[in-house]
Amino acid sequence: MNLERLASWFLGVRNRHVLLADIGVSLIATALAVWARTDSFVSVADFASSIAVASVAILAIRLAVFARFKLYHRIWRYASVDELARIGLGATIAFLLTVAAFELVLRPLGLIESGFPRSTPLLEALIALPLVSAPRFGARLAQRIFERLHRTSRSKRVIVAGAGEAGVMIVREMQSNPGLGLAPVAFVDDSVNKRGLRIRGIEVEGLTADLKEVARSHSAESVVIAMPTATGKTIRQITDVATSAGLKVIVVPGIFELLDGSAHVSQLRPVQVEDLLRRAPVKSDPGRVEALLKGRRVLVTGAGGSIGSELVRQIYRSMPAEVILLGHGENSIFGIEQEISGAGPDAPICRSVIADVRDRARLGRVFREHRPEVVFHAAAHKHVPLMEANPEEAITNNVLGTRNLLSASVEFDVAAFVMISTDKAVNPGNVMGSTKRIAEMLVYKTAEETGRPFMAVRFGNVLGSRGSVLQTFRSQLTTGGPITVTHPDMMRYFMTIPEAVALVLEASTLGKGGEVFVLDMGEPVKISDLAKDVIRLSGLKEGDDIDIVYSGLRPGEKMFEELFMDGEEYVRTEHRSIFVCNTAHDAVVSAGGDGAGAADMAFMFDEHVDALIAAAQEGKTSELFGRLSSLVPTFRTVGMDSAPILDSGQRRRRRLAWAS
User: Is 0.90 topped by the overall pTM?
Assistant: First the structure.
């Protein structure tokens, strides 16, 4: 209890007490320095007048310097290395000023006796430094003691996976706030050089693979994965080990959540499926994106959607002059407008436009009024089974809408045009994928005709988008299930929305005109595994608490989506996560007609597209399908289950062959 009483006394120390302590130290340290130098109390008495003058001078200098460094405006129980550095720097400057005062003022004026030891300022500084530090860092030490003494027996014993900056911050947060009910007992980290080291009193006791043994030795109940940049594979491995050891798993938000400001490193949360699918952070060059967008008027179509709204958020960071939010759904546009409207007085101007990309006249008026310089086209119908049932809507929105935007962009001298495409445009056998493939060809053809940097960026599924499989699973989970999966072997590529958009913006800086860029989506994931992860991370058991039901493939669906099309040549760009197709021209040529020459290609392609749009507008379904087949040879020839399911080694060899 004496220790607790002492800690409580130190915790009562305020800055006024620290000031009084500094005054006392400064008044006695000079006498102590003279005594230490001469080893004689007689000398102290002989130099009494000089000591008095020196003490007052040192006191005045020290207080002035410490006040300038705001050392009397601190809560010392929370002192850190920053405060220690400030004390050290302040003491050093005070010492130098004291030496100058001694040699340039006090001695020349005869205020200091000639025999007064010249080493006094140095000895005084060495004596004073620990004395002025003691009340300050005594409060910090008392805070640590108080935290340990008041850690309740009900506090959960926690192991922290990751002894980096995030892990240290988490431990500091737990130690500083006993009310959290979390007590860190050990670190695990895959850096062997850290093993045995102690950080804030907590030892690094092993690798993440040793988690089960470390947890058993400390009777731990939880593990915090403090690795914002860790890949999904690493998160999954730690989660699996922790689950087998009966530990509750908590995670620090991922790097993209931290970068976009939606989370802070100290905001712990349960592990989510998105964490298991994390990839290694991609390097980006904000300077290049800023060079493209800063000071320009940027229009985003589909700005209220999942991709469109994230485009708006990230575009805003590059400080364009104006962002035009164009969308057909007023509620979603209103939502993103409200979100970014509070970005501050220096934020870009935001204009909201409710318009349908199928209305060419309306688009013309929008472009004439706002004069966009860069266009990001994210508006599209993307749901495969729904578009199979409503092909007219897919064609008028995805094909006609894209052509209208391209026409307006050419007419009003848009400097760059970026269309968001999809992996379903690769060897498409369904309506939605075929319309996006035609839209890619329209972008290429316009770029070829104008010489402008108009391009498409193709990627797979994004996590968390409206209508995504993950949202469907979570919705089914809340209603008690079952969770429905189309086929146990169906696989898809996944990427987080912020990561996909960041790479889209990177790709937009690489385009010269007519490119189809493809994002490296990593390895595909089984949808059935995703469903099992959702169940497991919800604390439920498949079969006992909730079932997975396989419903069969829906119209237009393929077992395995591809990112690279047979016959196209892909190479990596200077950005390792972005490929570019070097043979986009061939698709337009082949769609121009049987045996069409180069001179007739453009005309015949346009003729096919005109006929396709007319058939859709008139509801001529059979003609519509015929025109799709003419423009996209794989339409209705790729069966729903005809795409081979390749093992991971085959997929990687195939991808590398395309990319070489």
Answer: no
